[in-house]
Specification:
Bound molecules: adenosine-5'-diphosphate, magnesium ion
Oligomer: single chain
Strand order of the largest sheet: 3-4-2-5-1-6-7-8
Number of domains: 1
CATH class: Alpha Beta
CATH topology: Rossmann fold
Structural class: alpha/beta
Strand content: 15-25%
Radius of gyration: 18 Å
Length: 263
Amino acid sequence: MSKPYVIRVSSQKGGVGKTTVSVNLAIALSLAGSKTLLIDADFINPSVGIHLGVEGANVGVRAVLIGKSSLEGAVVRHNPSGLDVLPGEIVSRPHNPTAAQMQRLFRQIFKTTYNFVIVDTPPGFFPEEEFGNFGEAIIITTPEMSSCVSAVRLANDYDRTRLKHELLINKFRNKGYELHVKEIEEMYDGTILAILPDSEIVPIGVSERIPAYLMNRRAPFSSAIGELAEKYITKAGFEFQPKKSNSIFARIAAAFRLLFGRN
Ligand SMILES: Nc1ncnc2c1ncn2[C@@H]1O[C@H](COP(=O)(O)OP(=O)(O)O)[C@@H](O)[C@H]1O
Ligand SMILES: [Mg+2]
């Protein structure tokens, strides 16, 4: 049995798209036939549940970290995609996990049969002592100078701790005022993992609690997410087995929400 492929989705800056990428990539992996777990490890602002419409968890990642719940006991299923989610709890004070707690969580994760574990994180760099040195990282940036400078800083921190990382450019508009991909590539001094367009389908999906990839698989944002998922499936050596689209289910659910109000 091989260990799950752990991908930490990170950035130095907030609001660049960590949760958006985590949620949509996890759904794409799941719909492509990979057994996938999405963990909301943004202990400051947990928002995976908001994107997926599974908010309000009493038991979630914090309960597993402090040993109050097993991993299986805290995981919820996102039915439209078949994705397993370890949600964050909405608590008045953020929980800062200790290294021992993170190790306890990952010991449990490495005993599971998940193919992929996607970890959404708070902005910033978390030293090994705090977050552990598990898997590899996606660093997210937008094509703006301030965001790219922060991304390079995070890349340097990861290099120091020998955590493998790749850069993803999000909210790309292809406008003259943006940094060019080549310039970003040079600043980062590495290859670009993916470029995701700025797309209205993302905020629409958040407001409907149906992530963009489920809402419309043909949109350019979704195609780019689909390609990213395929890239990881190939890298991990799994077979790509696309499942039937659930977008009809998603559309019916959206219609119901609009008709009968949100929960
Ligand atoms: N590719 C995109 N196109 C358009 N809006 C986006 C895109 N990615 C993220 N957003 C929007 O940017 C905001 C921040 O995204 P989020 O994923 O919450 O960032 P983070 O988790 O890094 O704080 C949200 O309002 C989200 O809808
Ligand atoms: Mg977030």
